[in-house]
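Q: I'm writing a short explainer about Olfactomedin-4 for a general audience and would like to include a description of its predicted shape. Could you first generate the structure from this sequence?
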Amino acid sequence: MQPVLTLLATLLLLPPVLLGQPQVQQLEQLQSMAKELIGEYEQQLLWVSAEYARAIEEQENQALEMIQTQEIRNPKTITSLYETPAFNLLLLELEGAQALTTELKSKAGASRAADLLHQLQEQVTNASLSLKLLADSDQRNFRALQQEVDVLQGQLNECEREKEQEQASRHPGPPLPPGSCAHRGLQKVGRPLVLQLNWRGISHKAGAWGRDSAPSPDSPLYWVAPLRTDGRYFDYYRLHKSYDDLVMLKNYEQWKMGYGDGSGNTVYKNFMYFNYYGTNDIAKVDLSSNTLVLQRPLPGATYNNRFSYASVPWKDLDFAGDEKGLWVLYATEESKGNLVVSRLNASTLEVEETWRTSQYKPALSGAFMACGVLYALRSLSTRQEEIFYAFDTTNGQERHLSILLDKMLETLHGINYSPSDHRLYVYNDGYLMYYDLTFLTLKHTVSRPAAKRPSGDRASPRLVKSKPSGS
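A: Of course. Here's the predicted structure. Afterward I'll give you a sentence or two in plain language.
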């Protein structure tokens, strides 16, 4: 405000000898108006200053209490220096000076005083603009700092998890009983064990196989379902009542269906679930009689290879069973191709609950469920995959991880988890493989706070849970 008063004082003390008689009269009138305006402005400024002086202490006390409360709830929430009453007062003074110079300039006409007022107006405008730019720059720097803190917090969380996993591997706990979820998630994946080539031959590269994915099934049923050579049509499958029969290729039942689509099928409680050909329908077949017992559309699900996995065509509906029930993984137009997880009623095929993820399904190479947790894979090379993402449907928490998974050939087609033996059954370009899974047992967990998320207008990457609308 000091430059404003200095220039106005210069204007009022302008010597008359520099001007003619008409200009002197105009200047005297202008000086008189300027004195009145300056007096009025100073009175208004004194009143505003007094009001702010009374409010500042109260607002600062309130702000201090808010900051302390926010730091307790979220230590990353910090009040900017440019969101204080003092800053607002300075901005108000500049706006008042701008209004005053504009009014004086309109009354000065074409004279030397008008030139001085124009210079004054430019200075006030530049000062106001600089102040606003400074505030914007502070906010950008603050947000950038918040993002750096988020990254560091995430790295710290991962270091703590790796320490837990290292401790667990040095002192392994007792093996998990079949169907148990007394653990804190997947820790590592064993080496791939190649069982054999599928019974239809090397040209049938796409398909799926596994064990009944219901926890503690009545019989150790194994199933193998190679697709046709086109990699889409599911028409035959075999059932084996024991692992030895599967290895020896004996004592099997072979059935023909002729209406399956893709390699996303699974077996749960002696029923096979799969995508009905050319539709977004869920189909359910009774394995004891090879009878189609139920067919029902999955609301909103895309089909006909709209959003399949990377390098795995026609896998629009990917079924999974685990300790918590029967699931289907898919994409919708509404989700813009992102992976959607729905829990199904195994009897009626109705959708019981749905979660929408932030993972683009065509960027994934596959996914599976274990203890209500979604695990997503991506391809690192022709010989290695990475389980990089997990989402727990029981508490709505997501996390990123890095668990490497070796493979014999390039593409993983059907991926099915079995709670009975905690194995992952994978159909790898025509070969039947399985992996032993190790979970982080509860006795090795370390209590630590959950990763904080920044508040404000930045979008949180947390997943969105919703109730079904079409069931």
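A: For your explainer, you could say: Residues 183-466 form a domain with the Lipocalin fold (CATH 2.40.128.630).
Q: Perfect, that's easy to follow.
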